[in-house]
Write a structure and sequence with these properties.
369 residues, alpha+beta, 8-stranded antiparallel sheet, 52% helix
């Protein structure tokens, strides 16, 4: 039996380790969506002046507070997110340690810490960019399976093979469940049709392999409509001009790479500008991104199939509550700007810290004695 002093020492170490890891997670959150290496440059740099931050100005939590959220080189503002991610990671690492250490399951701290780090990176990237990188989802799923094989108690199993197999079951259950939700959502809500009382101007402007699509006051990226590659955008145009060639009363069918007008078609990668006025537009849309499907597979690989069911239900409840609150305060558009990934991450953390207890309490309340 270790003296109480060691409890405090280990807890402090867990928090400090988490804060240091949080500093690296900030690098991942900033660089990964931009396609930048998380290893080069090795040191963090100021987002404003790109000055590489020296070690003595890169102390987690303290540096941000001492410099009051500003770059020591240019004085540019450093987002509070950097401090918040370090603090959140430190607190989660501490919470994990306080969960596993008294139970004598300290070996589970490593996989839970890794999972918590993945959840944090996925959440903040999804908030800002509405994507969850494959390095997090697929890489996390592989990590969950390997860790479950190496530490079978992660899945409540006694052998390495059983741990790895049940991790695969959890990942597969998560993938299949949300994949079904995506397919059903596509069938129910796969199209959005907008009609305009008066012809509304629109422009389509190619930008390398991407294109900007603006209808009225709404600006969108062309690639956002073609998640699967088989979707179509339909437009009823009062008039239409394709690279200077004009058409009247045109019904247009657009695929990801082609525009069809009657028997003619244009390859969009060779088209610079399309403009005109529309009276109706039909957009394809997804009920949920496929990144969320891979994300729940990652969660299932770490926590198992029971956690998958709990996480999906919890995430749906969180989304419903947020939606109701935004309606109450008259800001319904806010809920549309929150992706589903953060709800999944919150549901997974709830399972990790209190899920089985909540399930037992619910069953005790609802089932007859």
């Amino acid at each position: 039996m270790l003296p109480p002093f060691y409890d405090t020492l280990f807890a402090a170490f867990a928090f400090i380790l988490g804060a240091c890891i949080g500093s690296f997670l900030n690098v991942c959150i900033y660089r990964m969506p931009l396609g930048l290496s998380v290893n080069e440059p090795k040191r963090s740099f100021c987002p404003s002046c790109k000055y590489q931050i020296p070690l003595h100005h890169n102390i987690p939590l303290l540096t941000w507070l001492v410099l009051r959220g500003k770059c020591a080189n240019c004085g540019g503002r450093i987002s509070f997110r950097y401090f918040g991610v370090e603090l959140l990671t430190g607190l989660l690492f501490l919470a994990v340690w306080l969960k596993v250490w008294p139970a004598g399951a300290w070996v589970l701290a490593l996989p839970y810490w890794i999972m918590a780090a993945l959840l944090i990176v996925a959440t903040f990237i999804d908030f800002e960019h509405f994507i969850i990188p494959d390095e997090i989802t697929i890489g996390g799923t592989v990590a969950g399976v390997l860790l479950s094989f190496a530490i079978p108690t992660l899945q409540g199993q006694g052998t390495n093979v059983a741990g790895g197999l049940w991790s695969l079951v959890g990942a597969g259950a998560g993938f299949a469940a949300l994949c079904l939700v995506v397919q059903l959502g596509k069938m129910a809500f796969g199209k959005k049709r907008l009609t305009y009382e008066k012809p509304t101007p629109f422009t389509w402007t190619r930008r390398d392999q991407e294109a900007d699509f603006i209808v009225g006051d709404e600006a969108m990226l062309w690639s956002d409509f073609f998640y699967r590659g088989t979707e179509q955008v339909l437009m009823q145009c009062a008039w239409l001009e394709i690279d200077g060639e004009r058409f009247e009363n045109a019904a247009v069918r657009c695929e990801c790479e082609w525009l069809h007008l009657g028997a003619r078609k244009w390859e969009l990668v060779k088209t610079d500008v399309i403009r005109g006025e529309v009276t109706a537009v039909t957009f394809p849309r997804e009920a949920m991104g496929f990144g969320d499907v891979k994300f729940i597979a990652c969660i299932g690989a770490f926590l198992g199939w029971k956690a998958v069911a709990f996480t999906i239900m919890s995430a749906s409840m969180f989304g419903a509550v947020v939606g109701l609150l935004t309606i109450v305060v008259g800001r319904r558009e806010w809920s549309a700007k929150i992706p589903f990934g953060p709800y999944l991450a919150l549901g997974a953390l709830l399972w990790l810290f209190a899920g089985p207890e909540l399930v037992r309490w619910y069953l005790a309340m609802t089932l007859p004695a």
